[in-house]
Amino acid sequence: MASAAALAHPNIAFVKYWGNQDESFRLPSNGSISMNLDGLFTRTKITWNENRKSSKDTLTLNGVPITGRALQRVSNFLDLVRQMAGLDLRAEVVSENNFPSGAGIASSASAFAALALASTRAAGLDLEPGALSRLARRGSGSACRSIPGGFVEWTAGTSDEDSFAATIAPPEHWPLVDVIAILSSAHKTTGSTEGHALAGTSPLQAARVNDAPRRLDLCRRAILERDFAAFADIVEADSNLMHAVMTTSSPPLFYWQPGTLAVMQAVRAARLNGQPACTTVDAGPNVHVICEKASATKIVKMVGSIPGVREVRAAQAGGPARLVEVE
Ligand code: DP6
User: Fold this and answer.
1) Lesser CB count within 10 Å: N end or C end of the chain?
2) How many beta carbons lie within 10 A of that of residue 266, not counting itself?
């Protein structure tokens, strides 16, 4: 039985992926930029089962057997790996997140990045990083950004071949911290996959997509030059643009809660007072407060005291997806 295990970090997008050119290939409407989150990870072990009698893939997440749609999504992904490797075996997948799945930190990115690496290695394939990123993208778009390390850009591309992510700067380039204000651990009512499919129903999506190259340039440059003021402006504008699309889709998607806005406003006020901090919000109510390491302790304290904030987590820039010992 061939086994392998891999670990991958989730990531936070500074220029967001929202909407697809092609749903089934997960070819995004626009490019995106993100940072991997150190300290948070998914660790996944896979075994290709040579016992011909096993007719189904199995999945265990944090010790709990998973069935239904989540298992189907993993099986569909493993079909791609079976095809690439010319394999006719079912898999046993055992996965753990070291962060609670209900904590509002997207786990599909780290999950499919770890699965892409572990499943291909266990199948005897050794994909180069771009090919691995392309494969992870098929499981979850944002997963392609969890394959390379540090600060990462996903080039939208126009086909399966040219849509993948690569590092623009290593983790140590800029000691940024993502201070995550957790407002709710409830599972979101509309997941990202369904949300992407609605993006085109907003009249604002075309403007958002057409303007993406400009935002990508500004964000990339701000990261490379470690220019926090420029970075803060573009990160907040990009998040607000995505939420403008979400709230004007049909049906509309409202992910913010009152506490979301309270954190956004408090951070804005802190920035006007000289604190290098800004906010970005994904498809949920939690707020990612991005700050420089020197002010992280202050920001954690400030954010934790805002009514509605239940828990605060902090993560610096993390490394790439990597193989780990099979236990
Ligand atoms: C709001 O990658 O989770 O977090 O491809 O359907 O799995 P699927 O979507 P997913 O979408 C991420 C959306 C986002 C923005 C981002 O991370 O860029």
Assistant:
1) C
2) 21
